[in-house]
Write a structure and sequence with these properties.
single chain; 251 residues; Rossmann fold; seven-stranded parallel β-sheet; three-stranded antiparallel β-sheet; 10 strands
């Protein structure tokens, strides 16, 4: 693991965008795995700026998002399809036919077949060159909640109470938060050639400590990152504040 600590969220976001931008300049037809949530927003803002001001080209890029709520149509303002279009896709020159966000409108009976199709679509695209991740306060990545198999594939998951509580602020109340989501599995994520896990703020500090310094365990899904051959933990100082045993931190 490379552990890179920046002073604050803005500096961290700029660095993350430069990592992704460097990949696109080197390989214009890269396949990107993308995340939603508050942490990636700064990176997306920087990528948009780089597109408009420095000509960063997304025309040949293929994207696969990590997850989507079951039962929310793409036009719903809390769907991840809406989030990605609002905060990235409509501001850059990515081709709509190369964009993939899980479709949460399938029936429960159809979801397993759809999830298999999503896995095969990633494989047909050549696999993920970079997977961008956030992390939950309980150590989840995507919607792989604690106790998720470290070898899991794209599937439907029941959301934990903590995750639903964390997301209630976006919906108005916990009762309005969907109970299920389609998510890439940990095994799927681990097949990416490079992973960037970004975390910001004191609320993520304990999850980051467990991810980096704790044992590899399905109770902290992000701890699987310890087994990946090419992962960057991109943190601000607050998120890194509880690390005690790491011998080398880049700044």
């Amino acid at each position: 693991m490379r552990i890179i600590v920046k002073q604050d969220y803005e500096e961290m976001s700029r660095f993350g965008a430069e990592l992704i931008g460097g990949q696109l300049r080197m390989q214009p037809d890269s396949v990107l795995g993308l995340a939603t949530g508050g942490t990636p927003l700064g990176i997306y803002t920087e990528l948009i700026r780089m597109h408009h001001e420095a000509g960063l080209d997304f025309s040949k890029v293929t994207t696969f998002n990590l997850d989507e709520y079951v039962g929310l149509p793409p036009e719903h303002e809390q769907s991840y399809a809406w989030f990605m279009n609002e905060h990235l896709f409509r501001h850059i020159n990515v081709s709509e036919r190369f964009v993939h966000v899980p479709n949460g409108m399938h029936t429960f009976d159809d979801i397993p077949t759809y999830c298999q199709w999503y896995e095969e679509a990633i494989e047909r695209a050549g696999g993920l060159d970079i997977q961008l991740l956030g992390i939950g306060a309980n150590g989840h990545i995507a919607f792989n909640e604690p106790s998720s198999s470290l070898g899991s594939r794209t599937r439907i998951k029941t959301l934990s109470k903590q995750t639903r509580d964390d997301n209630a602020r976006f919906f108005g109340s916990e009762e309005d938060v969907p109970k299920y989501a389609i998510t890439m599995g940990i095994g799927t994520i681990m097949e990416a050639r490079e992973i960037i896990l970004a975390a910001s703020g004191e609320a993520k500090a304990e999850a980051i400590r467990e991810t980096i310094e704790g044992p590899i365990t399905q109770m902290v899904p992000a701890s699987a990152m310890q087994m990946h051959r090419n992962v960057i933990l991109l943190l601000d100082e607050a998120a890194a504040s509880r690390l005690t045993k790491v011998p080398l931190i880049e700044r």
